[in-house]
């Protein structure tokens, strides 16, 4: 096994499993000095067809991060949060907003940064299944109203409904 020259990927480019294997698996194995017959990522475990989803077990030895936080602008009286657009989203609370959620393509953790506009807000969260938000015994939070301060809400999606929790409140200066 030898080193394969690194490649620059284009935005929106479909990565066939064979190409991804050649660029990642082979170079990692080369750098780690692993024998030729060792398999870090098999073709069956990488990308299925033109999908951008990993199949099988995926292990990351370093950090996984997101490029950006999805900006939903001002809340107004109602707002749809589309979790397929990204796991980390933010919104400026300009009203006691009635939220609806577009479910992500799979289970996972999602965060919503709610930024205050100067008035404490009590949002209305999705309350019918599927897509219902279940809050702990303390119930849904009243959001920080101080202008420029924010609260972090965490939602665990189980494939049907959400469990909501408070990651922290009144962040900012």
Strand proportion, as a percent range, falls in 25-35%
Cα-atom radius of gyration? 21 Å
State the share of residues found in helices, binned by percent.
under 10%
> What ranges have pLDDT less than 50 throughout 5 or more consecutive residues?
35-51
Estimated structural class: mainly beta
Please trace the helix and strand order, writing H or E for each element. HEEEEEEEE
Explained architecture:
- The chain has 173 residues and is mainly beta.
- It has two domains: 1-64, no CATH class; 70-171.
- Helix content is 9%, strand content 28%.
- It has one helix at 17-32, and strands spanning 70-74, 78-82, 88-92, 98-102, 108-115, 133-135, 150-157, 162-171.
- The strands form two sheets. It has a six-stranded mixed β-sheet with strand order 1-3-5-7-8-6, with no helix packed on it. A two-stranded parallel sheet has the order 2-4.
- Strand 7 and strand 8 (162-171) form a beta hairpin.
What secondary-structure arrangement, pairings included, does this model have?
Blueprint lengths: L16 H16 L37 E5 L3 E5 L5 E5 L5 E5 L5 E8 L17 E3 L14 E8 L4 E10 L2
Parallel strand pairs: 1-3, 2-4, 3-5, 6-8
Antiparallel strand pairs: 5-7, 7-8
Features:
two-stranded parallel ribbon, mainly beta, 173 residues, 2 domains, six-stranded mixed β-sheet, elongated
Care to give the gist of this entry?
With 173 residues, this protein is mainly β. Helices cover 9% and strands 28% of the residues.
């Amino acid at each position: 096994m030898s080193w394969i020259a690194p490649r620059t990927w284009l935005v929106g480019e479909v990565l066939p499993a064979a190409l991804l294997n050649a660029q990642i698996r082979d170079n990692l194995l080369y750098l780690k000095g692993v024998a030729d017959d060792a398999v870090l990522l098999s073709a069956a475990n990488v990308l299925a067809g033109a999908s951008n989803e990993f199949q099988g077990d995926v292990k990351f030895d370093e950090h996984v991060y997101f490029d950006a936080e999805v900006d939903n602008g001002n809340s107004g009286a109602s707002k749809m949060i589309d979790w397929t657009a990204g796991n980390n989203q933010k919104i400026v609370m300009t009203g006691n907003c009635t939220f609806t959620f577009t479910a992500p393509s799979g289970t996972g953790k999602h965060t919503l940064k709610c930024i205050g506009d100067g008035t404490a807000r009590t949002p209305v969260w999705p309350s019918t299944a599927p897509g219902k938000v279940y809050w702990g015994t303390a119930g849904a939070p009243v959001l920080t109203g101080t202008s420029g301060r924010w609260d972090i809400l965490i939602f665990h999606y189980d494939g049907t409904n959400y469990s909501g929790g408070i990651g922290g409140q009144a962040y900012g200066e």
